[in-house]
Amino acid sequence: MTNTAISAGKPPALGAETGLSRGTFGALFVTILAWASAFPAIRAGLTGFGPVELGAARFAIAALPAALFLIATRPALPKLGEIWRFATGGLFFVFLYTILLNIGEQTVSAGPASFIINVNPIITALFAIVFLSERFGKWAWAGTFLSFAGIGLIALGEGSEMKIDLGALLILGSAFCNSISTIVQKPLFQRHRPLTVSAWNMIIGAVLLAPALPGVLEQAPLATNEAIWSAVYLGIVPSLVAYGTWAIVLSKMPASRASNFMYCVPPVATLIGFLWLGETPSLLGIVGGVLALGGVALVNLKK
Fold first, then answer.
1. Cβ-proximal residues to 151 (8 Å cutoff; 6+ apart), any chain
2. How many CB atoms are located within 10 Å of the residue 232 CB?
3. The model's pTM
4. Residues in CB range of 240: below 8 A, 6 or more apart
5. 20 to 30 Å CA-CA from 14: which of 120, 182, 191, 255?
6. What is the tens place of the pLDDT at every residue in 23-38?
């Protein structure tokens, strides 16, 4: 990008995607680390709050600094034809995704939940080919299914029963919500900066979740400190920070390849569990993590 473009405050054009630069890698690293930590934080938060109330608290915390960011930067307002794309982010990527995932995690343990949610990169790749005309070759598909198989081994390694129930279907629905939002909002980066898009997502989502805030106030006095701080953490790190870094990644890479990096989340979550909670992964979990990371490498290194 030229200095003229920077001084004019123009975001990079959609066709000027730069791939995995140092800055993009840094944004990816933060996103993966933050979202890997979100699953145990959600489970901790659900011990003190209902699934909808936890989502409302999480995004109320994230929406305030997001609103201050928009006030301070005064970005260009959406054009009439872009409003539905911004609304889709708030509705699907925040409101529906949060509710479906939180309710699903009440009955589905971490391993199977991680396996189900990681259908998302496959769905996104298919949507990107159809709606964004992205190319995703045979090596990319091979790497994707290698990673998906690795996630399956991680789930099996936890010894959790893999069953299809309402909770599993809700988590699958959250994966579709993520993919839909990614595809619909990708064209916004032609005209809008990534942090602007993510800020609007959090604000719109928080408004949709706002009717549950009275329930948050009722449940908070009875919640444990762990549940309360989990909600605060979810609002700041996996939401405010990671939604912004993910938007940066999506603005720099094809949607299909950007989503494929989400296969790094379960192995990193396993590592966090080992370092933070002393949870020793099984042999299947270790092999699955290696396969998941190897598949991501295959997708992004083999052209």
1. 114, 115, 118, 263, 266, 288, 292
2. 14
3. 0.86
4. 61, 62, 65, 66, 202
5. 120
6. 999 999 999 999 988 8
